[in-house]
Write a structure and sequence with these properties.
single chain; alpha/beta; Rossmann fold; 9 helices
Length: about 250
């Protein structure tokens, strides 16, 4: 990760190594990931997860053609910046972000109880503090005053159209905070950005920057979409389970 400007000490490197071991061990009895080779996990899960480190949370003008330089991650309030990962699965990107940037206060949400159990074991094994995992659906927890519009950053690597992701994620972002979506290169080259503009605006956000990242030691490209929360999200969103994907905004 040094190529991304992210320096790890021995304890952090050991935490990533143990996380990998637990991922592979548990994957034998629970479907966590199809990617298990060490080099692939390092690039496609770990490095990809921390890729917002190239200027995470900065407030520069949108530049869809920018090629992300790998600067050190900068937070507006490093002591208590809060981050929520929706649909975290095996803990990506939340756990790598927490290991790499320990000052983050991290919350993870996943709809499968067994995965949440795995996440809790990882947290305990690695001795991580300031991180928690919830079992639940994003559309339900968004009604909870303790979560709604409470986070500085909301992230998701879920595979879904931006209109759907925005409806699930933006209700959790505080005004002035960011939803950061991990998308493929197709987001820049296709019509998804234009198609989702209405939904993003309706939910109180605006696409501030689309950043291209080249993952280290590979040809893999990542597109990070930084959506700033400009105003409160209407209370009726997110809609009940299934509707965001069946009837996108």
């Amino acid at each position: 990760m040094s190529q991304m400007g992210i320096a790890l000490d021995e304890a952090q490197a050991a935490a990533f190594a143990r996380y990998y071991e637990m991922l592979v061990e548990t994957n034998k009895v629970m479907n966590l990931t199809a990617i298990t080779e060490p080099e692939e996990v390092l690039v496609k899960h770990f490095a990809d997860s921390v890729s917002p480190g190239a200027g995470f949370g900065q407030k520069g003008a949108a530049d869809p053609g920018r090629s992300g330089a790998n600067e050190q991650l900068v937070f507006p309030s490093p002591e208590d910046a809060s981050l929520l990962d929706i649909g975290t699965g095996a803990g990506f990107p939340a756990i790598p972000l927490k290991i790499a940037f320990p000052s983050l206060q991290v919350t993870m949400i996943d709809s499968l109880g067994k995965r949440v159990g795995f996440l809790e074991r990882v947290i305990a094994e690695l001795g991580l503090s300031g991180i928690r995992a919830f079992h639940g659906r994003a559309e339900d927890l968004a009604r909870d005053a303790g979560h709604r519009e409470s986070y500085d950053y909301v992230v998701s690597r879920a595979v879904a159209h931006m209109s759907v992701l925005a409806e699930y994620c933006l209700p959790y972002v505080r005004c002035g905070g960011y939803f950061i979506a991990y998308k493929s290169q197709e987001f820049l080259n296709g019509t998804e950005r234009e198609e989702s503009a209405n939904a993003v605006g309706l939910l109180g956000g605006t696409i501030e920057e689309v950043r291209q990242i080249c993952l280290p030691d590979s040809d893999a490209q990542r597109c990070l979409v930084f959506i700033k929360k400009e105003k409160p999200c209407p209370k009726k969103y997110p809609r009940k389970a299934g509707l965001p994907s069946k009837e996108p905004l």
